[in-house]
């Protein structure tokens, strides 16, 4: 039996700009899993962009849609899922992520997150006068939540997909042997 046979989902969590979407795509290809981004899924279901959802329904409307997508994905297997940075806020999401796969927290310095997201208008929560301060506040609130569900924490300003893949495969082997 190959370690990939088990095919529990893999979830990437972390703040905006941590590289969840970017790294999940590479991991999925390498593991021959299917790549899913929960934000893209929400956009596909609604037919509008994420900023438009925030504009019309507010953050809470978006969170409700996000929770539905996470519930749906948790019932599937063989997916590498890039979650949105706030997916850990709802306890039911945390339980579902934790219960249906392996969770990897990409822990990237705030300055790097700020630089990476500075020119991107698609993150409504960062369209403020001081995005670094906003990221600091989000980090204070969310870092404990990410850690509470993470099987793996990968830290650094230049996390490579290759490094994550190596740790992930080791972790999968461990889980499989249990
Ligand atoms: N490991 C990385 N090293 C350098 N730049 C990265 C890395 N991962 C992502 N980026 C860049 O940072 C930005 C945000 O990445 P993204 O994958 O969208 O993050 P997230 O989904 O966590 O918000 C993108 O412009 C992406 O090209
Ligand atoms: O941190 C957040 O609350 C959010 C992160 C975004 O995803 P990324 O983390 O992929 O940027 C997206 O879900 C939305 O803008 C809200
Ligand atoms: Mg993303």
Automatic annotation (TrEMBL):
Cofactor(s) it depends on: Mg(2+)
Claim: Acetylation is one of the keywords in the record: no
Pathway(s) annotated for this protein in UniProt: Metabolic intermediate biosynthesis; chorismate biosynthesis; chorismate from D-erythrose 4-phosphate and phosphoenolpyruvate: step 5/7
Assembly mode: Monomer.
UniProt source species: Accumulibacter regalis
Family: Belongs to the shikimate kinase family.
Name this polypeptide is given: Shikimate kinase
Keyword Thylakoid: no
Binding of substrate, residues: 39, 63, 85, 142
Catalyses which reaction(s): shikimate + ATP = 3-phosphoshikimate + ADP + H(+)
Binding site for Mg(2+): 21
GO CC terms in record: cytosol
List of residues binding ATP: 17-22, 123
Subcellular location field: Cytoplasm
Superkingdom per UniProt: Bacteria
Cofactor note: Binds 1 Mg(2+) ion per subunit.
Known function: Catalyzes the specific phosphorylation of the 3-hydroxyl group of shikimic acid using ATP as a cosubstrate.
EC number(s) reported in the record: 2.7.1.71
Molecular-function annotations in GO: ATP binding; magnesium ion binding; shikimate kinase activity
GO aspect biological process, one term: chorismate biosynthetic process
Keywords assigned by UniProt, alphabetized: Amino-acid biosynthesis, Aromatic amino acid biosynthesis, ATP-binding, Cytoplasm, Kinase, Magnesium, Metal-binding, Nucleotide-binding, Transferase
